Amino acid sequence: MEILDILSATIEEAEEILESSTDPTNQYIDILDKLLFMKELIQEIKAGKAPYDEKKIEEYSRKIREIEANIKNAVDEVFSSDIFFGLGEYEISELSDKGKEELKQFTKTIIELQVKNFRKLFPDRPLVIIIRAIGYADETPPGPELSEILRSTIATPLPEDSAERKKMLNSKLSFLRAQSISEYIRIQLKNTLEIENVIIGDPEIEGLGEELPYSGESFFPPYRSQDERRRICKIYSKITLDIPIDLSQP
Q1: Which of 33, 62, 233, 249 has minimal Cβ neighbours within 10 Å of its Cβ?
Q2: Gene3D superfamilies per the record (predicted)?
Q3: Average pLDDT taken over every residue of the chain
Q4: 3-state secondary structure of 199
């Protein structure tokens, strides 16, 4: 089947990206799992161990093309949080002018590289843009005023241990910053996107706080407790089609 040849090539591309990446949040990990799952099912059908389902094969083929297009037209960026926010800032209204310009350019790349290419591949299908934003912070303790504000946004009780409490507050701060950055991108997409039948989906946001953004061994000198290389936001854009596929069903 031609679909297996396409699938094998796509899996190899995803594996190469994973092998060269030190990013623990790499989105291709999940993609690779889906590809391997589909490959196994298709091979069972080809071997006569599962009934041939033309509709399901067609759906899998479309999903494989979608994944392949996301790999070949990947749009992701790592931004320093310092260019977006001043000390203790996190709201969208506090974004710096320089930060806004960076995000406008990122939005333009999404439209030019991803949306237009996807529209050529899928001229009649709805496209859904998903922005994934992952925020990080270093170990700088939030000031008293900011700490109180962050406390009010956390539903669970804070740890009694001061170090663990600081980690939780920094995780929340990194989440709120990632949320503001992703929302600004979504606003720019709404204001500038002129291609029809494109939906801006709900964002995927994480605040990982003081966790190291990348494997410590890949960085020299090693990360410090107060380090601008830890104060970052990773932004990923992907496009999916509007009809979901239940990959849990054979």
Answers
A1: 249
A2: OmpA-like domain
A3: 90
A4: strand
